[in-house]
Input
Amino acid sequence: MTPVKSPGIRQYQDILLKYNKKVNLISRKITEKQLEGLIKDSISMGKLIRGKTVVDMGSGNGILGLVMAIADPKKLFVLLDSNWKKVEFLEYAVKKLKLDNVKVEQKDVINFLRARSYRSLSIITRGFTGKPVFQHIMNNKRVVELMLITSQRKIDIIKESMDKYKETVYNIESRDIIKILKLENVSRETKSQKM
Output
């Protein structure tokens, strides 16, 4: 059975589509094939994450964080969103899916990083919030990596100011214009070994 067809993922899809009828979380015109494509993107990204605590920045409909939490129950997932309607959905989905490895918080990533003491954080997102936010995230010593699914054009914008981080760009199977960008903080020890 492919991960997209697993019972947990199927249940998530059903919850999302049903809830979407009352709160706009995803396009109401989305086809099952398109939704499965987004889920495949999330599963692909999840396989690249090395941190034990994963923070989904702007989680919204949970297509990244919830899907990854279902696929990898050994990691802790923190889903962040500032919109209370989306937070309500995320809490509802976590309860329905019986996910013990997920916490939901109504806040933005900068306030989360200021308030929390988690170590070795992996930050994930589908959105592009702008270079200042990414720089703030990457300057936090607890963040080991930032990963986002975005277009090559946006990757080029981000890369202009991220030259001190190790970067890897991954192609997404069957999607030409969308890629996964992974930025990693390189420790002082690693930098000195390279010199």
